[in-house]
Every structure is written in C-alpha cells, then in structure tokens.
Amino acid sequence: MTFDKIAPTASGSSPIEARPLYQQTRDLLVRRIIDGVWKPGTYLPSEQQLCSELGVSIGTMRKATEELVIQGLLERQHGRGTRVVPHSSASSRFRFLRFVHADGRPLDPVAHLLAQGVRAASAEERRQLDLDPGGKVLALTRIRSEKDQPLVYERLALPAQTFAALGLATGEDIVEEVYVFYQERCGVTIMRTVDEVGIAAADAAMARHLGIAEGESVLQVRRLAFALDGRRVEYRESFTAHLKYRTALE
C-alpha cells in the first residue's frame, strides 16, 4: 500500500500551507478511509509505517489520529493497534439518537418500514441534498416503536443512486440502526448530523400510526446527515407526540 506524501517545499521540508501539518495528515487518512483503502473494522498500518509513507513525524501522526479518535472515526485497541470504527446500533444510538422518554430514559426502538420507493425529489429535498433538477430519491417511511408502542413517525429521503444497494424490505422490523446499513451495504459512513427542532400538526397518516388525533401538535425534528466526504446523504423528518428531544450544545 502506498500513500501520497505531503509534498516537500523547495527547501526540502513539508509545507505548512494555511493549516497545521497534523491537519493535512488527518485529511489524508480520512481520504484513504473514504476511498475504501481501510474499510470499517480494519486496522491501520503501524505508526512507523504511516510516518515513513507520508513523510511526517510520530508526533504529527499521533496528533492526527487522536483527532479522528475523538471524532469517533478511529479507535485504539491496546496491543492490536488503531482501527476504523464500524457503525453499530449501540454506537449510532449513542451518537445520533436524540429522542428520550419524558423522564429522561433512553429510547431503545425497533423500526418498522411502512413504505419505500424511488421517486422524483421534491424542491425541498433537492435543496437539502444538493440534488440536480430531476434528481431522484429513495423515500422511506417508517414507525419507530418500543415494546409495541409507536413513538416516532419518520420520513427519510436518500439520493437514489447512492443508496441503490440499501435493500431494506417493506414491512420488515429492523432492530439495527439504519446508519449501520448505510455503511455496510452502501459504503456511506455518517460522520455528523444537523437537527432542526420545531412543532408541526399531525397529518392523517402520522396520526393513525402514532395513535393521536389528526391536527394534534407533535414535536418535529428535521435532520440533515453528512457523509465522511461532506456529502449530504440523508434528509429526515421525525415526528413524535410522546418523547422529548435532547442534545448537548458545545
């Protein structure tokens, strides 16, 4: 395996550019993960090998990898090395599931896929996902329940071509978080999400599945999810009349 070195300047030293060298190193590592050189669950080469291939010091490499550990992309395993973190239901829920019960208890949901299909993206979906006019989305509708109580009604829109291999079955009960399937089946790792919280009125379908009256006020969370390379890959609207939304501001 070979890497693009951080190119030297005329004086023979690595360039600082406008960013610190460890950031350039970090971005090269991320690029290799995006390109599939290291897949989720696989281990990186040793620090010494990486330093030799990229032409950087051990200190620079450790600072670069430490940032990716903090971001949850890499993890260190004592005696084994550093590996790319695979999405799991537990890790994805810890990082991305922000609904909790009224008393603060975490939610442990099962998702039931109500409907799916490829269709032309709406104007809002094109805007949110940076799609061209005429762009298509894979649209998913699901209900998330806990102990057979329906709690969250969701509509997801995904760029159709990117998620052609997703392969979920309508009517299926899904215990795994959907981000696990994005990564395993479509090669898309969700790195971050941006949520917008508001209030909406329940439409007929939403009210039927949540067991509430049509027009009743519900908590609405609109989410935009970003892949490792910065692409916008999921636009989601979630609705609940039973749960709270919790997040930490940094």
Structural class: alpha+beta
Number of distinct helices? 7
Percent of residues in beta strands: 25-35%
Mean pLDDT: 89
What does this structure look like?
- This protein has about 250 residues and is α+β, with helices and mostly antiparallel strands.
- The protein folds into two domains: about 60 residues, Winged helix-like DNA-binding domain superfamily/Winged helix DNA-binding domain (Arc Repressor Mutant, subunit A, Orthogonal Bundle); about 160 residues, Chorismate lyase-like (Chorismate lyase).
- Helices cover about 25% and strands about 30% of the residues.
- The protein is built from seven helices and eleven strands.
- The strands form three sheets. The chain has a seven-stranded antiparallel sheet. A two-stranded antiparallel ribbon has the order 1-2.
- Strand 9 and strand 10 form a beta hairpin.
- Helix 1 crosses helix 3.
- The chain is elongated.
- The relative contact order is 0.13.
- About 5% of the residues have low confidence.
List the helices and strands and how they pair.
Layout: H1 21-34, H2 47-54, H3 58-70, E1 74-77, E2 81-84, H4 89-96, E3 99-100, E4 110-120, H5 123-129, E5 136-146, E6 149-159, E7 173-174, H6 178-186, E8 190-201, H7 204-210, E9 217-227, E10 232-240, E11 244-245
Antiparallel strand pairs: 1-2, 3-11, 4-5, 4-7, 5-6, 6-10, 8-9, 9-10
Helix pairs in contact: 1-3
